[in-house]
């Protein structure tokens, strides 16, 4: 029995391996006539040209089939958990500014919901919260240094009460003290190692060494 290992793409006219074509049950060889690269290129072009129309159609479909979509999404996530997590990490690392802007928009649109969720989690996990702060204060004491209220107020005045990451100002946001070199990485608790960030940006920075004062 003769088995095809290659075929010619009907679009780009290149001869490619059978694995470079999407499956199709209605064809004799079980593959589409155009290769994966050409199919994806056409889909990208269609999406760019009809972006709003496609987005609206997607919203309507989700509203009409919400339960089924959520079930399929959960199954896909469960079956491909490690691959999806790795894909998200790579995307976030490759698009830091985009992810930061997305996080800000999401937070601003869901501020009350997020705040209530955090309060509820803290209420139900008091032991974890106490352990976290106990560990953090021990590290601060081990690393040395002290920041007074006067130091903190002077630092905020120096930067015009502005979050150095997102550019928003008090009183629209609440500034928090962030250690440029995190305490967990050996950073000292001194004003020279401090920068003012809003709570959202401070949380996004987490335990990374990022000096927004340079920007």
Summarize the structure.
This protein is mainly α and 215 residues long. 55% of the residues lie in helices and 7% in strands. It contains nine helices and four strands.
Q: What do you see in this structure?
A:
With 215 residues, the protein is mainly alpha-helical. It has 2 domains: 8-79, no CATH class; 111-214, DNA Binding (I), subunit A, CATH 1.10.30. 55% of the residues lie in helices and 7% in strands. It is built from 9 helices and 4 strands; from the N terminus they run ββααααααααββα. The strands form 2 sheets. A two-stranded antiparallel sheet has the order 1-2. A two-stranded antiparallel ribbon has the order 3-4. The longest helix has 18 residues, at 126-143. The protein is elongated.
- Percent of residues in helices comes to 55-70%
- CATH class (first level) name of the largest domain: Mainly Alpha
- Biggest sheet features: 2 strands, antiparallel
First-last Cα distance? 67 Å
How is the largest sheet built, in terms of strand order?
1-2
CATH architecture grouping of the largest domain: Orthogonal Bundle
Name a few traits of the molecule.
215 residues; mainly alpha; DNA Binding (I), subunit A; 9 helices; 55% helix; 7% strand
List the helices and strands and how they pair.
Blueprint: E1 6-8, E2 15-17, H1 36-49, H2 51-64, H3 66-79, H4 81-94, H5 96-109, H6 111-124, H7 126-143, H8 149-158, E3 175-179, E4 194-198, H9 199-205
Antiparallel strand pairs: 1-2, 3-4
